[in-house]
Specification:
The complex is a heterodimer of chains A (about 240) and B (about 230). Chain A is an alpha/beta fold and about 240 residues long. Chain A has a single domain, classed as Rossmann fold (3-Layer(aba) Sandwich). Chain A has 9 helices and 9 strands. In chain A, the strands form 2 sheets. A 6-stranded mixed beta sheet of chain A has the order 5-6-7-3-8-9, with helices on both faces. In chain A, strands 2-1-4 form a 3-stranded antiparallel beta sheet, covered by helices on one side. In chain A, strand 6, helix 6 and strand 7 form a beta-alpha-beta unit. The radius of gyration of chain A is 18 Å and the shape is globular. Chain A starts with 9 loop residues before the first strand and ends in a 5-residue tail after the last helix. Helices cover about 80% and strands about 0% of the residues of chain B. Chain B has a single domain, classed as Orthogonal Bundle (MetI-like fold). Chain B contains 10 helices and no strands. Classes of the chains: A alpha/beta (about 240), B mainly alpha (about 230). Chains A and B meet through helix 3 of A and helix 5 and helix 6 of B. The complex binds adenosine-5'-diphosphate (ADP) and magnesium ion (MG). The site of adenosine-5'-diphosphate has 12 residues of chain A, from strand 2 and helix 1.
């Protein structure tokens, strides 16, 4: 299905973002490679959402660069994003899944959309208005809609932030399946248990800087810095 | 008092009895105003959606102009169309003045800015919500505008009803460009104005009652739509 050329690795160089007179990101340098999910952690207001939007191309950096391995025009269709509050088009569940597929000119979009709904357990709700779904079902639909595009990279901004434990578990299973299907997942969360379950590697953002990064297991077992340890203990809220 | 009672009784008689002149006037009114809404919608809704979606130089000026045009007095709209369509005017050769077509044009000109301004208002909240997601899907403005119009269809139908209400109720524009010619360009509002001034209260009252009924029905329909939309979470 997918062309062999890949848009990864993604190189981030001196990435800065300022808005309203405030420096939100103060020069980040890192590389994202294909592989297990990258979890971006950090206290509220650290700049996680802004970082995802910059990487996805919804915001433009005020300094530095986000460099994909492919030209920009080809990268657009190879990445997708699911927002913290899923955006449900005022259409049926199936029509929501179809919309980006049609836009991308996918062959046989109906079949692909139905398949995507089945993968997240929403096949039976295909004809319902999307906005009548529960919060967990909406988030699953948003994931299905993104997954159906078979993106190389999927950005997820706190996908379980307002869900109950059962819905959270379903979403985590879907995220794990998406990662297992070969999509690079880049995700923020404030749920440290979830981060342990899903992460291949961790980036810790503090005050708009990349404070630490590393393989997940090492990061959680022996935090690299005192502040990282304090964050994992829940002692560092800002 | 007694006269008024008599007038009401006669008016009901005209409506219930299916008076041919009365129903001809009502039919023409509906045809003219519905056509005007259709024509105005073709321009007004996309314009409103474009203004909600796109940021371009001069956008604010367009929004201000639309809001000002919303308050355009119908007689003034009528006068402008009259000048354009009159025999010496730039569109005079079409011979449209004092025809129903001229009335459609005048009402369409009157309500197109209303539809555009109301549509912009109705769709900008939706755009706020959709913007990042549609950009993420890779949808440019050319795709975003039809998407917003479709997804905002309930709100936009209410906008159309508001436009229809305004068109059906206005007198000045159709009077000036239609000429209130009996059996040809006479509509409810112009007939009411004429019959009242002539002292023929029963026909004026009958038309007034029908007009009020139509306005009530339009509002009830708008309310029902809002409830359906709310039930669908739209
Ligand atoms: N468009 C913006 N304009 C101004 N400030 C912003 C904007 N977006 C986010 N911020 C600010 O940037 C900081 C980081 O925000 P965010 O990335 O949402 O944090 P989080 O790590 O909780 O996701 C916050 O202080 C927020 O108020
Ligand atoms: Mg956030």
């Amino acid at each position: 299905m997918r062309a062999r050329a890949t848009c990864l690795p993604l190189e981030v160089e001196g990435l800065r973002f300022a808005a309203g007179g405030a420096e939100i990101l103060r020069g980040l340098d890192f590389t994202l490679d294909a592989g297990a999910p990258t979890l971006i952690l950090g206290p509220n207001g650290a700049g996680k959402s802004v970082l995802l939007r910059l990487l996805h191309g919804l915001l433009s950096p005020t300094g530095g660069a986000v460099r994909w391995a492919l030209p920009e025009a080809e990268v657009r269709r190879r990445q997708a994003m699911v927002f913290q509050r899923p955006v449900m088009l005022r259409r049926s569940v199936l029509a929501n899944a179809l919309y980006p597929l049609r836009l991308a000119g996918m062959p046989q979009p109906k079949e692909a959309a139905r398949e995507a709904l089945a993968r997240v357990g929403l096949a039976a709700l295909a004809e319902r208005p999307a906005r009548a779904l529960s919060g967990g079902e909406q988030q699953r639909l948003a994931l299905a809609r993104a997954w159906a595009l078979a993106p190389e990279v999927l950005f997820l901004d706190e996908p379980t932030a307002s869900l109950d434990p059962a819905a959270t578990r379903q979403v985590e299973e879907i995220v794990a399946a998406i990662a297992a299907s070969g999509t690079k997942v880049v995700m923020t969360t404030h749920d440290l248990g979830q981060a342990r379950r899903l992460a291949g590697e961790v980036l810790l953002l503090l005050h708009g800087t990349l404070h630490a990064r590393g393989p997940a297991k090492a990061f959680f077992d022996s935090p690299p810095t005192e502040q990282a340890a304090a964050f994992l203990r829940g002692d560092l809220v800002w | 008092m007694n006269d008024l009672g008599m007038a009401f009784a006669t008016a009901f008689g005209l409506i219930v009895g299916g008076d041919a002149a009365l129903w001809h006037i009502i039919g023409l009114s509906l045809r003219v105003s519905l056509s005007a809404v259709a024509v105005a919608a073709l321009v007004g809704l996309p314009l409103g959606a474009v203004l909600a979606v796109m940021r371009f130089p001069g956008r604010r000026a367009v929004v201000v102009a639309l809001n000002a045009l919303m308050g355009l007095p119908p007689v003034v709209a009528g006068l402008v169309i009259y000048l354009l369509l009159s025999r010496s005017g730039p569109l005079g050769s079409f011979g449209l003045l004092f025809t129903p077509a001229a009335m459609v044009i005048a009402q369409a000109v009157l309500i197109a800015p209303i539809l555009a301004a109301l549509a912009r208002e109705a769709l900008s909240g939706l755009w706020e919500e959709y913007r990042d997601q549609l950009r993420s899907f890779g949808a440019g403005p050319a795709r975003a505008v039809p998407t917003l119009i479709w997804d905002g269809r309930f709100a936009l139908f209410t906008v159309l009803l508001a436009g229809f209400g305004r068109a059906a109720a206005e007198v000045g524009a159709v009077m000036v460009v239609g000429g209130n010619i009996e059996g040809f360009t006479r509509v409810m509002t112009t007939a009411i104005a004429l019959e009242t001034s002539k002292g023929d209260l029963p026909l004026a009252l009958a038309l007034g009652l029908v007009l009020m009924g139509i306005v009530l029905a339009v509002n009830a329909l708008a309310q029902a739509l809002r409830e359906i939309a709310a039930r669908q979470g739209a």
